[in-house]
Specification:
The chain is built from five helices and eleven strands; from the N terminus they run βββαββββαααβαβββ. The chain has 206 residues and is an alpha/beta fold. It has a single domain, classed as P-loop containing nucleotide triphosphate hydrolases (Rossmann fold). The longest helix is centred in the last third of the chain and has 18 residues.
Length: 206
Amino acid sequence: MIKIEKLSKRYGRVTALDEASLTIQKGETVGILGPSGSGKTTLLRLIAGFEQPTYGNISIDDKLASSPVYVLEPSQRDISAVFQTPALWPNMTVIENIEYVHPKPQTGLFQPAGLWELLDRYPNELSGGEARRVSIVRALMAEKSYLLLDEPLVNLNPELKTALHEVIVEETKRRGLGVLYISHDASELEYADKRYIMSEGKIGEE
């Protein structure tokens, strides 16, 4: 379980996250709906270990991961993540990026994600949408227990968006992953076990 207790993040006088509390169980999908600038990405970056909280704590499977005086390295957390800007290794092809997290990838995910024709390309040869698709498949194949999704389907065409959403739902449920799915599109979160609204850095019930 990921447990977030009264988590706050301030940048100078600006409060990006304000006493957020949340739990994410393995096998459970938690959805957060909110507009741009509401603190959603800040929350994910704190959980992933890329930011340090100003106040509050994060624990992962009963082990402290973040506090105002301690941050466990992202690589040491049992978490994979997809952010709005895909973070692919530039010196690796698409297939090498995927094989880095899983040496024997599940190729059944390549077709619905539209990756077969991209496997030998490098990240600088991909469009933004193509890179996002690669990052989603790579995150799904990582051998982690938790998955963070930061608006993973934004700006994709409707057909591909539907196909990838089905891949995410089916694969996370098949593997029993704990998922935090953040979006501004309520339809993407209809399947979630729990749903919350985020506004001005605060998390509230839907």
